[in-house]
Design brief:
- With 153 residues, the chain is of the alpha+beta class.
- A five-stranded antiparallel sheet has the order 7-6-5-4-8, with helices on one face. A three-stranded mixed sheet has the order 1-2-3.
- The chain has helices at 2-12, 14-19, 50-67, 91-97; strands spanning 23-32, 35-43, 76-80, 101-110, 113-123, 127-132, 135-140, 144-149.
- The chain is built from four helices and eight strands.
- 27% of the residues lie in helices and 41% in strands.
- A hairpin with a 2-residue loop joins strand 4 and strand 5 (113-123).
- It is elongated and about 55 Å long.
């Protein structure tokens, strides 16, 4: 059911959000402590502010009621920013983070470690390459649990 709801929203709701000038980073339909949540994570080159979330929420609420992706199951609608430390998942994320410091977390340890830090150099569906102290380190994507920016203040 969850994947069907996400698929319907990606097909019918995301284009509306894109037309407002926002990128939809992810659509999630999942059970949380307060019940089922339908979440749209949005971004823009200028960042996301509460007014942006309100604008998108107002633009999609009636359309969601009309298309009824959850077949009358109740849910809480969330429109939010994915945050500055959001995982790197797609080509746009890679381009935004190329040559920036990232952390690669692995499912299985490689050379006794499950976490590596370095500058993101390459990223595709098969591999991830980072540079650490002048050394290039490559990882098979199927072994990568998470790639996220390293935020230093």
């Amino acid at each position: 059911m969850a994947s069907k709801v996400v698929q319907i929203c990606e097909e019918k709701i995301c284009p509306v959000i894109n037309n407002l000038g926002y990128d939809v980073i992810e659509v999630e339909y999942a059970k949380k402590s307060d019940g089922m949540n339908l979440s749209f994570y949005i971004d823009s080159p200028n960042g996301i502010f509460i007014e942006d979330c309100e604008k998108v929420n107002n633009a999609i609420t009636d359309l969601l009621d009309e298309i009824n992706p959850t077949n009358d199951e109740s849910y809480i609608l969330n429109v939010c920013s994915p945050g500055i430390d959001r995982p790197i998942k797609n080509e746009k994320d890679f381009l935004r983070n190329k040559d920036k410091l990232v952390e690669v977390s692995l499912y299985v340890a490689k050379n006794g470690k499950k976490k590596y830090e370095g500058k993101l150099k390459e990223f595709d569906e098969d591999k991830v390459v980072i540079e650490n102290n002048g050394e290039l380190l490559g990882f098979e994507r199927k072994l990568v649990a998470l790639i996220s920016p390293v935020i230093k203040f």
